[in-house]
Amino acid sequence: LQSVSEQTYRNLDVILVDDGSTDLSGKICERWSEKDSRFRVIHKKNGGLSDARNAGLNAARGELIAFVDSDDVIHRDMFRILYDVMDKEQCGICCCNVERGTIFRNQTENEKRAIKGIYTSEHAIRAIIEETDVFVTVWNKLYKRNIVEDIFFPKGKCNEDEFWSWRVIDRAASIVSVKGTLYGYRQRENSIMNSRYSLKRLDLLDARAERLRFFEEKYPNLVRLGRCDLRFECIRAWQFSLLYLSKDEQKQSRNKIQSIIKEDPVRPEDCRELPPGRRFWYLLSGITFNGTCSIRNRFHFGP
What we know:
This protein is 48% helix and 15% strand. By secondary structure, it is of the alpha/beta class.
């Protein structure tokens, strides 16, 4: 909250969502709203991260929207830089680089606002799949309100970003990425992403399957890439299941994964653009899926 309050871009409407906290978080939010008129607090019954973000979206009054997770920090110039670049380039989404931690390296003004890439929706979604320049996370970006205001996060789902980001990017005429490292991402030992692997993590497969169906309707050039990506996520999920789930949980995981790979079987023509190593695992999984995952676990390939 300190990093938000010290933004060099001052015209902020800061919505703090107290999602049924059982510690002093709610009181901390109230203290901030008392000393900074830009801060507003929503106290609500615990509904999870998606429900909290949706509550913030519903309450938002600004023309632009951004998200900051509760354990992260932002560079004091983040919103000023993203706003300036968005205004200049007339893009629907502007995103920045991410620092793992809470201390930012020294950067000149030119470094912070230098443009790394300008993308169409299709190219940005491809970059998300390939994990280059544009990433699936919602919190290192600034969005025009009309792009996001009626797209809500799926309540109760893990990996909620995976269900949301590609839908939003699809609506943007252009997406701009700047070189500035302006968002500080911090993982606590008891954070959602560091919690024990569970069946809830299989929600990611639902998100990738939904995305693939969407590609089939609108982005045919991305279908092969999306199908390979879904297959590798299934491999990864079964590797984790073998390592960390009980026998009963493994049965549930296997049933879900098998239903997905049955609907999207291996097609040799899909993997032509993959590097040789990934092409090998992709094709092998079509011969023996369980064997592929067991071999990868045995020789520490992933997950």
